[in-house]
Amino acid sequence: MIAKKSPNLTDKASMRLTILRHAPCIPDGRMVGRRDVAADCGDFPALERQRGRIGAPSQVIASPALRCRQTAKALGLSPDRFEPLLWEQDFGRWEDLAPDRLPDLGRLTPAQLARHRPEKGESFDDMAARVIPVLRSLDRDSLLIAHAGTVRAALSMVVGPAALSFAVAPLSLTILSRHDDDWAVEAVNIRGDL
């Protein structure tokens, strides 16, 4: 005889999590974490392509960052809520630096890089520790409009610190699915310009 699993509070339904990284930042190319900069939402073909891929989400949650709000508006979406815990990683003293002005950290493993905290900022691990509980609390298919760090935090639930090696282009989609407490990656970095 096979015992039936009785429903309890730890059972979770299957769900799909789609994360859209916001449109490119203005000014592009500099470190942008917590600075609230605008997005360039002028690539209408890319926006239209992603809008078609998104379909009609049952729930839309966005970071309160201006660039995420502008991206949602450009897609014709009204977020159900703005979630402050989805803000990008705080890069501290690295904010607004051009890539050639960033310090050389030497050779670090993904785990070491995930733990590294820029002066007056937060590490990837710090950021993931605030983002992942939000992701795990979702109870139905959801679209998030957020940041590259949010995407990598989600990927880290499956691949750990190796998530830092994934490219996450502006206006790209990443899709994960969950069954009970098991997460799987369906797609990463589906770009709007392709």
From TrEMBL:
InterPro entries: His_Pase_superF_clade-1, His_PPase_superfam. Pfam families: His_Phos_1. This is Histidine phosphatase family protein. It comes from Paracoccus rhizosphaerae.
